[in-house]
Amino acid sequence: MLLVQTIICDNLPIVQQPEAYIGNVISLLDDEGKIKDEGTVEFLQSFVNAFVDLIRRYQN
Question: Which of 1, 13, 28, 55 sits most deeply, having the most CB atoms within 10 A of its CB?
Answer without folding.
Answer: 28
